[in-house]
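Before relying on records like the one below, remember that each one covers exactly one chain. Contacts with other chains, cofactors or solvent are not represented anywhere in the record.
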Amino acid sequence: MCKFRLGEHRKDGDKFVTMAQTGLHNAKNQKKDEFYTQLEDIEKELKHYKDKFRGKVVFCNCDDPYESNFFRYFVLNFNSLELKQLITTSYKPSPIANTQLGLFGDNKTVVEPKGRPKVTANKFIINETHDVDGDGAFNLKDVAEQLRANKNNEWAPLVGDGDFRSAECVELLKEVDVVVTNPPFSLFREYVTQLISHEKKFLIIGNINAITYREIFPLIKEDKMWIGESMNGSNRWFQIPNSYNSYHKIENGKKYAFVAGVMWFTNLDTRKRHENLTMYKKYTPGEYPHYENIDAIDVSKVNDIPIDWEGIMGVPISFVNKYNPDQFEIIGLGISNSGIEVGVRPYKLEHKKYRKEVQKRGAVDGDLYMITNGVVDVPYARILIKQKLKNEN
């Protein structure tokens, strides 16, 4: 059975606002960050990096093994990826964390002899996988058997709540090679900052608007982080805990949220970031208006970047999907203080007054704007870029 809760969709400039985005914002505001990534989405992305994991220790530090498809993917592909080790940690208790380690079936509830049952966050360390029951196939049942026997693999409760910032999780982080997970939406800035400070390779999921964060954009500009191969700003389904009140559908008894603008962020090298964007249009003044507060043109669609324009241009943030650092230079971000830092001039007084009084919207110095038919026109977030000429490469 599939049951939907539908919301409105409306067009807002070049930003498409949907109920999916509203649901994401609600989740961030309420700190309800448990969005379980679909196995299909993980497989589509991870297939591009198989050679990156050979002999590596992989850490999924926002993943309850009872529920996480990241754990499922890596443990089932442990041998084919030639992993050295897989570590997963969960945050706070799993809904079934107080069950005997049936893991993937035949769960048996643990009953404490006295007092309240102790429910903890968990740590799983996988060092090897093989066909335990001798049926000729390796599957999750074999993993469960190995964990029960506690031979070469380890399952143990964590001392704390499993927060990625906790001392014990940070100690684990120091020992790993690659981090792969879907971190909490509300803590994305802090999560990435931690990875960078510990100089870790990573492949993680975030929202497209994270590109505009002051902690994130400089990493993209300086080629310390880029966009993955798939799911590049698209809308995706995520399973969520049944305790959540806000959802978009129920399917087979499970709740799902439809989240807009989902992307993979990584510092693992990708094929795509070395491919040139094909440009076929030429600059025409009527099609590419100039900004009022910086010497640059506005390009409303990435596919419309003019092949013959050598100056600065503002492009949608979705440009990062096509960004090749050998083809383009990122100048900066045309928003607020980030814009002022790269030379975007403040509003002229008459334009600022018009925008506030007539359009009933805030006028923020540093935001790029144009004058279109006498109207102050502010496009949605723009990245300022410039083509690299052949002799500059």
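The two ends are 56 Å apart (CA to CA).
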